[in-house]
Amino acid sequence: MPAAQLATTLGPQLSSHLTGQPTVTSLAVADPGGLIQSVDWVAVAPPLIAALAGLAVLLADLFLPERRKKLLGRLAVAGLALAVAALLPLTGGTPRSTFCLQDVQGAAGCSYVADHFALVFQLLALGGALIAALLSVHTVDEAKLPGGEYWFLLLSSASGAALLPAARDLATLVVALEVASLPAFALVALRRDGRGAEAALKFFLSSVTATAVMLLGVSFVYAATGSLHLGVIADALPHAPGQLKPVAEAGAVLVLVGFAFKVAVVPFHFWVPDTYVGAPLPVAGYLSVVGKAAGLAGLALVTSIGFRAYGHSWGSVLAVLAALTMTAGNVAALRQRSDTEHGAVRLLAWSSVGQAGYLLVPIAAAGYRPGPDALGATAAYGLIYGVVNLGAFAVAAVVGRSTGNRLDDYRGLFATRRWTALALAFFLLCLAGLPPGVIGLFGKVVVFRAAVDAGLGWLAVVMAANVVIALFYYLVWTAKLFAPGPAAAEAAAPALRLPASLTATVALTASAAVVLSVLPQLVLQVAGGSLF
């Protein structure tokens, strides 16, 4: 407490020791109301609604009869839709913050800030979770997954992913990241076969190791700066005592390692293909978008705010990792065989690794060009990638209902499911960055510009080479949709009717991709200004 307040409180006690007379100590403070936190419930509403919806699903599961369990999925979808709607009151005006503290030196820090950065990534996290929930409705019923547990875990993970972009201290970041990750382990393991258990175990062990490394880094940073708030850390790092600077630098490296695992950055990407194949398909789509968004948000926050004093150092490291990640992901996707079971899901998994490399480029550029403006390119590209990638997973769920999800199973899809094939073709062209998938092309241009503006010309060249590599396997998959094949012979037979939720998911993602291609400014304006 301040010196004057300390003297007021301890003065009577000191006097009693000198005079020998007992006194009654007053514990009152000048401003007792200042010790009570005033929570901005509107600011925290998006993650809070998702968490409350998860609790509501868990309680409803205890009382609903078995024949009414399908209502749990509708409740989960409604809860996520309400959480997305709760972002609207936060879009206008200045950023809102809550859970703020002030230490004895006067340094202030807020643990939760609802600024433009937080809102964009919360939209990506909650919107991606909503699409994954729609995609999950038929999967829970057909695969006979435990509905109450599934929806509770999905909503819990979504609440953590929505909390993370608004976190502004390392403790809240770690807690939010684990709230997003721990339920995801269980979601992967809900698949009732050996593949699901193996995938969950590999995912769990790798993630726990990364978390332990990150916590060690957080402790080092706290030891060197005396604070967990990112703004205070940024101010303290340049003035850290000489003997503590190596501790601070080691802590920064370890923290970045933990977030790099969540984003599936090389060399921390090895868990991705097996986990995606072993998980239920909606969970794989959820991890590819929402899990990646949470990791990217945390990585952007700790680098651009907390460790901005080391900008050139982490900028160089992230630039190299971005080049390695996009190259490893695209080359591995290029090598996928068309007759391998689950080959389509494995290709999407490796493609998501390559896309993670593209998403890292603007974050690396922010280390060379001071200011958070470059992060707008990551946010814009993340929104584009989230829509089209979840759409591709939705089509994979359609084909996987009757096949082994080999790439060859998509041959002649246009003859049997015309609109589904057109939707997948559009998603793949968006991912490749080719017209008519204009939004994918614009997204890549924005990322290219961020690299060039930061003086990372060599990284732009590497990205261009990887875009060419990705073009090949995306176009090969697209060509299979319209090529004659075994599926064409079945065109005369009526196709199995799709569940309404699956049809709605494909239609929703395809419509969003088309609208964004016609009106790209809806997303690209995110890259035009500061997010903080």
Main features:
532 residues, two-stranded antiparallel ribbon, 70% helix, globular, disordered N terminus, transport, ND/Mrp_TM, membrane
How are the SSEs placed, and which strands pair?
Elements: H1 3-19, H2 45-63, H3 71-85, E1 96-102, E2 108-114, H4 116-142, H5 147-163, H6 170-189, H7 194-225, H8 230-236, H9 245-263, H10 272-278, H11 281-306, H12 311-334, H13 343-368, H14 375-400, H15 413-416, H16 418-432, H17 438-453, H18 457-482, H19 486-489, H20 500-518, H21 521-524
Antiparallel strand pairs: 1-2
Helix pairs in contact: 2-3, 2-5, 3-4, 3-5, 4-5, 4-11, 4-14, 4-20, 5-6, 5-11, 6-7, 6-11, 7-9, 7-10, 8-11, 9-11, 10-11, 10-13, 11-13, 11-14, 12-13, 12-18, 13-14, 13-17, 13-18, 14-16, 14-17, 14-20, 16-17, 16-18, 16-20, 17-18
Main location: membrane
Domain NADH:quinone oxidoreductase/Mrp antiporter transmembrane: 167-468
Protein name: NADH-quinone oxidoreductase subunit N
Describe this structure in words.
- It is a multi-pass membrane protein.
- InterPro entries: NADH-Q_OxRdtase_suN/2, ND/Mrp_TM.
- It is a single chain.
- The chain has 532 residues and is mainly alpha-helical.
- Helix content is 70%, strand content 3%.
- The chain contains 21 helices and two strands.
- The protein has helices spanning 3-19, 45-63, 71-85, 116-142, 147-163, 170-189, 194-225, 230-236, 245-263, 272-278, 281-306, 311-334, 343-368, 375-400, 413-416, 418-432, 438-453, 457-482, 486-489, 500-518, 521-524, and strands at 96-102, 108-114.
- It has a two-stranded antiparallel sheet.
- Helix 4 (116-142) runs antiparallel to helix 11 and helix 16 crosses helix 20.
- Mean pLDDT is 84; it is low at 1-33 and 487-493.
